[in-house]
Amino acid sequence: MRSGGGFASLRQASVGRSAVTWLAAYAAAGAFVGFLAGLLGIGGGMTLVPILSALFSAQALAPAYTVHLALGTAMASIVFTSSASVRAHHQRRAVDWAIVRRLAPGMIIGSLLSTLASGLIAQRVLALTFAAIVYAGALQMLFGGRPSAARSLPGPSALLGIGAAIGVVCGLVSAGGAFLTVPLMLYCGVPLVSAIGTAAALGIPTAVIGTAGFMASGWRIDGLPDATLGFVFLPALAALVAGSVLTASLGARLAHRLPVITLKRIFALLLFVLATRMVVAYT
Fold it and tell me: What's the CA gap between 41 and 85, in Å, rounded?
């Protein structure tokens, strides 16, 4: 009996160590993405989704819905990483709240529509759609440049349509939308640092609504792991947030001191690697 109890204790200790290892991996991913969120105004979803997908696959968490869980959990984490980033940028007066008020409504609508539909999309289709959009975003970051002549933002109706289109993309890839909103604002003459801070602010309402959509779309799905709300895996979310909040503030401080063009290009190359991993894994 004592021997059996000893083996049971060993198994429990092993499970405990395994859980701590996975939580540490989530926290490390959160710290990395949080830094990028503050530095570049991104919500971090595009970076997190391939990482979370790989981690969830390694744990064999709901194999038929690995990408869905990665998308939902990444979207939920954006609420926290973007909030920390916005606070630091707002303190430096680098958030244009007028642009947020004009562009956010359309982004919210688009994000809600695409996330509500996510549960109806096959995992392979979702993964390849994600990869295609990330490739496009990475190409824009790598080769996109600021136009020589400054322009102004379009009118309310046009911004509603543009915002809705951006929101649909955000929902599909669990992104705050900075890879699209920053280039849009630069094209319209918004200074780079202000565009980064404003993009982070735009990511918050989009992420809140998108998270609600992922929760709703996965609410009645069978076979999801314990401790989930729809397609949001709560243990991973908690560790991601713990790792990201402090580093997001650090990244925001550095964004006001360092040139970011080279860093944006490095980030674009990282997106290429991550998107390619998704293609290889699901084809």
Answer: 7
